[in-house]
Amino acid sequence: FTSSGGTHPLHPRADGMLYDGERIPLHRDLQQVLKDYTKAVMAERPADVVEWSASYFGNLAREAARKESPNAALARSAPSEFRRLPVEIQDRISDVFLAYDKDMSGFINKREFWTMLKEVGAFFGVQPSEKEAEDQLKAMDMNSDLVLSWFEFASAQARWLKAKGVK
User: Which parts of 7-158 are beta strand (E)?
Assistant: First the structure.
């Protein structure tokens, strides 16, 4: 395969040039990412390499996002009323969301919400009923899918704090 007319079997180019590190600047972390990936896929030997790879890189992305700063990542996607709150309050609300999003899906599902209400209620000596929990979830759930996205959770907390006079 040469630059004088040959093509790469996986990435042919009209001009016949190969892709290489000398012609295309590579991200400084790419070599290590690919090295780690190659070692992992060789060690695991998955039956479905594409499905396994999707899971591998998904887990890698979630790990990197958590290392970044979970609160900073959430703040970027928060509603404007939330972003107007003092940063320390934003951080506390973010911490609560991250603590109860046990499966790290980016949503608080019905089970996680129920756990949160029971634990918060116990802190105040109050035990909410399942009906109260379901009603509260429905009130906060803007799109009626019975899970709370970060946006829905942050919006509800910001509205509640505003109603309580917190600025």
Answer: 107-108, 148-149
